[in-house]
Amino acid sequence: MDTPPVINGHNKQEYPPMHTAEHLLNGEMARRYGHGRAFSAHIERKKSKLDYHLPAGLSDEELRSLESYINGVIGENVAVTEEYITQAEAMDRFDMSRLPDGASDTLRVVHIGTYDQCLCAGSHVGRTGEIGTFRITSARWQDGVQRIVFKLG
């Protein structure tokens, strides 16, 4: 696996299977609900959580559907690839608001097949089959924020 780019003097390192699962959940949440990717994330090896701005909480059926979708992509064993583009090229394709100050002009885009693409400096698996089983362990909605907690098994 390639060394992630340095941004602001730091390498961003996460547990690659969990970080890649985060990308899948973020991409599908943005597609399904149209409120963008998580505004807050805490990604760890044992469990992770993502927070989204949503007008109403997700039902158990919606949560199970997300889980099933992500496990389907994992089961397809899709390639995780990268490309490098300039900030100018990225402006038309991505939300640049979370790009840290001092980021280089060359940015890395991580692609998970045709399922997700986003700017990222983190570590990822080479194929989705390396992620393991994705499981949403809890979720809650409060004051316009939907939290989703998940594990891999």
Total beta-strand segments:
9
Spatial order of the strands forming the largest sheet = 3-4-9-8
- Based on helices, strands and strand pairing, what is the structural class? alpha+beta
- Rg value: 15 Å
Question: How would you explain this protein's 3D organization?
Answer:
The structure is a single chain. With 153 residues, this protein is of the alpha+beta class. It is built from 3 helices and 9 strands; from the N terminus they run E-E-H-E-E-H-E-H-E-E-E-E. It has a 4-stranded antiparallel sheet with strand order 3-4-9-8, covered by helices on one side. It has a 3-stranded antiparallel sheet with strand order 5-6-7. The protein has a two-stranded antiparallel sheet with strand order 1-2. Strand 3 and strand 4 form a beta hairpin. The chain is globular, with a radius of gyration of 15 Å. Mean pLDDT is 91; it is low at 1-12.
Question: Which features does this protein show?
Answer:
alpha+beta; 153 residues; disordered N terminus; three-stranded antiparallel beta sheet
Write the topology of this structure.
Layout: E1 6-7, E2 10-11, H1 16-33, E3 40-42, E4 48-53, H2 60-75, E5 80-86, H3 87-91, E6 106-112, E7 116-119, E8 134-142, E9 145-152
Antiparallel strand pairs: 1-2, 3-4, 4-9, 5-6, 6-7, 8-9
Tell me briefly what this model is.
This protein is an alpha+beta fold and 153 residues long. It has helices spanning 16-33, 60-75, 87-91; strands at residues 6-7, 10-11, 40-42, 48-53, 80-86, 106-112, 116-119, 134-142, 145-152. It has three helices and nine strands, in the order ββαββαβαββββ.
